Amino acid sequence: MKGKIINTINDLLAFRKRTSLILLLVMSLASAGIIVVNIYSVRILSSARAYVNGESEYSKGQKDASAYLINYITFHNKSDYFAFKNAIGIPKGDHVARIGLMTPPVNYATVKTGLLAGKNHPEDIDNMIWLFETFKNVDMFKKAVEIWTEGDGMIDELGQIGTSAHSEIMKGSMSDDEKRAMIAAINKNSAALTIKEQAFSETLGNISRQINTYVFAANVFITLIIVFCSLTSAAIMIRTLSNSKKKIIEQNEKLQLINAGLDKFVFNVTHDLRSPLASIMGLINLMDDETDLEQMKEYTLMIKESLERQDRFINEMLTFIKSKHTGVSKTECSLSNIVDNVIAQNSHHNGGKRVHFYKELELTQIRSDALKLQVILNNLVSNSIKYSDDKKPEQWVKVKSYRHDAEVVIEVEDNGLGIRPKDQDRIFDKFYMSGDNKKSSGIGLYLVKDAVTQLDGKIEVRSELGVSSQFRVIIPFS
């Protein structure tokens, strides 16, 4: 009988290990996937931005060339003709680059020289070449290249008008009617080119918007995979432990302790997964209305950082479960770094609405359990944002720390919705939710109270409904 029990335990452990490894592999691949998606999306958007900037230089050069040529035809000033040649050299440089990119084998030296002549930034040139070669057969990009080609044809026409005008002026045989005809041709050419330039920019804008949509969908999809794998992993752990508990009665007490630890692990993971997801959704909401490519690149990097922080958090929660059997692990830790990490993780919640954070840390270095402090502060700050009052002109969260005799006091205060007096004595109970509250799972403050208790501390709450809330965590200094 004993042998069967041992075999059952080994089988269950092996199954859990295999399944966990598979889920870990899937989550790792998903995390790598979201990083790759965002890196390439940033490169594509940066390259598209470079082409838009290049188009503005192209347009300026064309318009300057038209203006100088009209002046030359009108006043016969040679300096205007030289200025015309210099200005028209900008779109002609882009023309050289396009021909070089479309003619195999590509002469990259010629292409780069053409792009530089078109006044494109040197740091953008490699990305512009990469975008052209990567997407030259994609319909929308092909459309942009076709517009570019048509525009280059009109630039050639403008150049021919300039050459003809110069020849006639040098001969001294240009009549007033010929002047008027040439100026009319230049104006007609300029108007047609303006339409092409606008169409080129609009096409690139459509490409950028489509990329935003694809990146949004990819981020949401991969994030859901990560969440699904995390929840599935937790569910498998619970199911495995539940089955083993039924078959091994003599180890029931030990299994119950393990199961309780795993329950807390699930509560922590599922509760704290909402923080980065809410942050990502807030950033995505901002990206939906953002047109500045540099700003969107910053938002994308923030999304990547949020996911990396959550990956670290999951690993830390595994350490948290192990610590249940070894007690509190007190080390020298930076309270300032912990607060900064918590603020960074929660700074883009609240649907993209800005919440101001204030730090007043008189005490920045303490000897305590850094992971438990992270759990405490993350839940308190997350709740402050979750129950912020958007009717107030400024929504803020303040984190303070100071020493009082032999104790450390950490305060998290906000000007949110507040807590009803009758709820203040029960908010730390597991699964307790006040009134018709649908924002909470009823576990966050329970985890806070549990972590504070493990640190031999206590927590106090002061709140006025509709005005503010303040949580005071009091723990031993060392």
The gist of it:
With 478 residues, the protein is of the alpha+beta class. The chain has helices spanning 2-75, 78-102, 108-117, 125-135, 139-171, 176-247, 252-288, 293-326, 335-346, 370-386, 444-454; strands at residues 331-334, 356-361, 365-368, 396-404, 407-414, 458-464, 468-476. A hairpin with a 3-residue loop joins strand 6 (458-464) and strand 7.
Explain how this protein is built.
By secondary structure, this protein is an alpha+beta fold. Helix content is 70%, strand content 10%. It folds into two domains: 26-217; 248-476, Histidine kinase-like ATPase, C-terminal domain (Heat Shock Protein 90, 2-Layer Sandwich). The longest helix is centred in the N-terminal third of the chain and has 74 residues, at 2-75. The model has no long low-confidence stretch (mean pLDDT 82).
Task: Please report the distance between the alpha carbons of the first and last residues.
Answer: 49 Å
**Spans of 5+ residues with little confidence (pLDDT < 50)?**
none
Largest sheet: 5 strands, mixed
DSSP helix fraction? over 70%
What is the tally of beta strands?
A: 7
**CATH homologous superfamily caption of the largest domain:** Histidine kinase-like ATPase, C-terminal domain
Rough outline: elongated
**The CATH topology of the largest domain:** Heat Shock Protein 90
Mean pLDDT score: 82
- The total count of helices amounts to 11
The CATH architecture assignment of the largest domain turns out to be 2-Layer Sandwich
- The CATH class of the largest domain is Alpha Beta
> Domains counted in the coordinates: how many?
2
Range of strand content: 5-15%
Strand order of the largest sheet: 2-4-5-7-6
Structural class call reads alpha+beta
C-alpha Rg (nearest Å):
33 Å
Order of helices and strands: HHHHHHHHEHEEHEEHEE
